[in-house]
Design brief:
By secondary structure, the protein is an alpha/beta fold. The protein has a single domain, classed as P-loop containing nucleotide triphosphate hydrolases (Rossmann fold, 3-Layer(aba) Sandwich), CATH 3.40.50. It contains 10 helices and 10 strands. The longest helix has 18 residues. It starts with a strand and ends with a helix.
Length: 261
């Protein structure tokens, strides 16, 4: 049985310091995790960039209460370079490239614009210790291609059967596209660490039985009502409720990921 811990092959344009956050379906807390993880990495001393790659349903700006003048949509339209869409968040200690809701998905972009996006992202990544990519939910090819260019891809799931099924589908297609992909599982909204372990065990057994791979568990994030309150107030959890269980869990995850070379 192969334990998927080998970093993505460092081919041309590979993002060696990037962490993709993906899920097979929506509603599992992927964007919240992306925001909070990037914030936690910054608090631990990493120069960090949050990149909202969920173009059609972008909501990083909403969760952070931002009204950016420039965003990913404008850069993709050729209105300005991608670097000009970077918004420094001095109060939180990290930078953001916001998406643009309702502007269509990445899957609908012409190949030349996708190539320009990849080149621009590679250039941006060179200026940071860690780049967190909040990818669109689902298993579209473009989403998987962006994930495969990152050093690590976090697959976010919950204990809901549909979430686990879709997480399995994402892992299956990702392994087929890149057998050396560093895929790791994060169980979100777990009732307890023990429940999170059981959720992961169910997903791992399916991967071992049918894919002959064993993506490791990298984090269990406990269900916490303060998460919804922080999102509703458009303030990062680590600012509004820094002493909650969910905050501690994300900070522990960030510590693990920051140790990667």
């Amino acid at each position: 049985m192969r334990d998927i811990r080998t970093p993505v092959a460092a081919g041309e344009g590979a993002l060696r310091n990037a962490i993709a956050v993906a899920s097979g379906k929506g509603g599992v807390g992927k964007t919240w995790l992306s925001v909070t993880l990037c914030h936690a990495l910054a608090r631990q001393g990493c120069r960090s960039l949050l990149f909202d790659g969920d173009l059609g349903l972008a909501n990083v700006d909403i969760q952070l209460g931002l009204t950016p003048q420039r965003d990913l949509g404008g850069a993709l339209a050729g209105q300005y370079p991608l670097a000009n869409a970077v918004l420094p968040l001095e109060d939180f200690g990290f930078d953001v490239v916001a998406g643009r809701s309702g502007s269509g998905s990445l899957a609908g972009l012409p190949s030349d614009r996708l190539a320009a996006l990849s080149a621009g992202l590679s250039g941006l990544a060179a200026g940071y210790d860690r780049v967190v990519l909040d990818l669109g939910a689902g298993i579209e090819q473009v989403v998987r291609q962006l994930a495969s260019r990152c050093r690590t891809c976090l697959i976010v799931t919950t204990d809901e059967p549909t979430a686990m099924t879709d997480a399995y589908a994402f892992i299956k297609l990702s392994v087929r596209h890149n057998p050396k992909a560093d895929l790791r599982v994060v169980v979100n909204m777990a009732a307890s660490p023990a429940e999170g372990e059981r959720t992961y065990a169910t997903l791992r057994k399916a991967c071992e039985a049918f894919l002959k791979v064993s993506p490791p568990l990298v984090g269990i994030l406990r269900r916490d009502p303060k998460v919804k309150e922080a999102i509703r107030h458009q303030i990062p959890l680590l600012v509004r409720y820094p002493n909650t269980e969910a905050a501690a869990d994300v900070e522990a995850l960030a510590r693990r990921l920051s140790k990667d070379p």
